[in-house]
Write a structure and sequence with these properties.
Blueprint (H helix, E strand, L loop, with lengths): L20 H14 L5 E5 L2 E3 L15 E12 L2 E13 L4 E5 L6 H8 L7 E6 L2 E2 L5 H11 E4 L11 H11 L4 H14 L15 H13 L5 E5 L7 H17 L3 E5 L3 H4 L4 E6 L2 E4 L1 H4 L21
Parallel strand pairs: 5-10, 5-11, 8-9, 9-10
Antiparallel strand pairs: 1-2, 3-4, 3-6, 6-7, 11-12
Helix pairs in contact: 4-5, 4-6, 5-6, 6-7
């Protein structure tokens, strides 16, 4: 399946003896759900075009991420549930944006849409020159692997793998050699202060260390955008502060554009800008920014008219 870039059973990434079968079952599971596609058929006269090549095929706007009149609804047994409608905002290159709101407001769903993990019911979403709505599922996988890093509330590390192996997985999934993947993984573990824990299995790490490994895994592919969904939600206050400070540091040092979903108002206040998702619409925190985002109405907190759940 993986050709010359597969991790052979006789030569695991860390150089240790062959791992138990359940470890490779976990690896195969990862491959099944995370395998990106290098080149995809876009249906353009039979030509094969990578997602990267789409940068030359779609118009470019100033913002790295632009959301236009986004709507998301679900069909339930009691009718249609409209989570949000008419969301329009943009995120500037290099910005650290916090999205806050009550549980159930749709913050995680919005983050999934922004990262091409989910599709909106209608509206348009642009990442630089890429029209995300028009990506096939295979193109979306390639986009996620190359352009987006994800950090979740739960780390989702594979427990049978070492920290270094977990960080290397996204690189192996896109076809990089074992040697290259290991080298980059070790570099990023050093970046997050865990060089001395590289050969420890994920289950041997503390909660804060596990989240730092997940941050390294998110950034080892050198994405332009980092999406973090309650990244400190499972941590105590002191550890949460350290992890958030690390996110701020790598955000600045690597020129990332980052969107953070959080219930922690103190951490949100340390971001460049704060927006609130509530009752189906988005509001900007003018007290934080002092002025509305360029292109948004100067009078209102409402960024869009919005629609509450039906």
């Amino acid at each position: 399946m993986w050709g010359t870039h597969a991790i052979p059973r006789e030569a695991p990434l860390s150089g240790h003896p062959a791992p138990p079968a359940r470890k490779w079952q976990a690896w195969l599971l990862f491959c099944t759900f995370a395998l990106p596609v290098q080149m995809v058929d876009m249906g353009m006269g039979g030509s094969v075009v990578s997602v990267a090549a789409m940068h030359q095929q779609v118009g470019v706007e100033n913002a790295l991420l632009e959301v236009r009149d986004l709507r998301k609804e679900y069909v339930t047994g009691r009718g249609r549930l409209r989570l949000f409608d008419g969301l329009s905002f943009s995120v500037a290159k290099g910005e650290l944006l916090a999205i806050v709101g009550a549980s159930g407001a749709g913050k995680s769903t919005l983050l999934h849409i922004l990262g091409a993990l989910d599709a909106p019911t209608s509206g348009a979403l642009y990442f630089a020159s890429i029209h995300l709505n028009k990506l096939s599922s295979r193109q979306a996988a390639d986009f996620r692997n190359r352009e987006v890093g994800y950090v979740w509330q739960f780390h989702y590390l594979l427990p049978e793998f070492t920290a270094a192996e977990n960080v290397a997985l996204p690189l192996l999934a896109r076809g990089e050699s074992r040697k290259q993947a290991e080298s980059k993984a070790l570099t990023w573990l050093d970046e997050v202060g865990l060089a001395d824990r590289a050969e420890h299995q994920a289950g041997e790490l503390s909660g804060g260390e596990q989240q730092r490994v997940s941050l390294a895994r998110a950034l080892v592919t050198e994405p332009r955008m980092l999406l973090a969904d309650e990244p400190t939600g499972d941590l105590d206050a002191e550890t949460a502060d350290r992890v958030f400070s690390l996110i701020q540091r790598v955000h600045a040092s690597h020129g990332l554009t980052s969107i953070l979903v959080t219930h922690n108002q103190e951490l949100a206040g340390r971001c460049d800008r704060v927006m609130r998702l509530e009752a189906g619409h988005m509001e900007e925190d003018l007290a934080k920014t002092g002025k509305p985002q360029a292109g948004l109405p100067a009078t209102g907190n409402p960024v869009n008219k919005g629609v509450s759940s039906i």
